[in-house]
Amino acid sequence: MSSDQSSNKKKNNFTIIKDDSTDGHGGYGYGSISLENMSSVIVDPNENKAYVDMAAMHARSDIERRVKYLNDKSEVPNGKLYWIVWVNVDQGEKGPFYSGVAGSELRVDRSIKRAYKSMPEHVTHMEKSLKGKIIVDHMDAPSKKLLKDFLVEFNPDMWNNSTEELKSSLPE
To answer: What InterPro entries does UniProt report for this protein, alphabetically (predicted)?
Structure first.
């Protein structure tokens, strides 16, 4: 693990506005999708908290590890609810803002080491977030409030620069 990786693990940071890795060279990776402006926020309504966990980008967050995933939510009836929220940051006229926000459900039952997650939903939500879409209507109200409070507290300027659609989707 490099020093950059270990320091990122200790910090609670978003990946914000980095240089384009292709820089117009047209070589390997040209035209590929960059995830440099995306972060994964875990919303845990059970513990009443939200936090950045970049390991979720590769399905390796603490809540996702050491469980077997099932495709049927009913097979995890006592699973604790979590949301992995894909947050994309973009640069606007007034500065950086939360441009795409999409929440994906996760249910984990540690007692039986089983969990439910719809991989197609997670991938779709990541893609929609990259495209600047706001997809949080299906989230429960306490989780939406936790997410809003986290985004506002993390960077009030980015929240203020964000769209009215995001602000109205995450009410008080």
So the answer is: YwhD
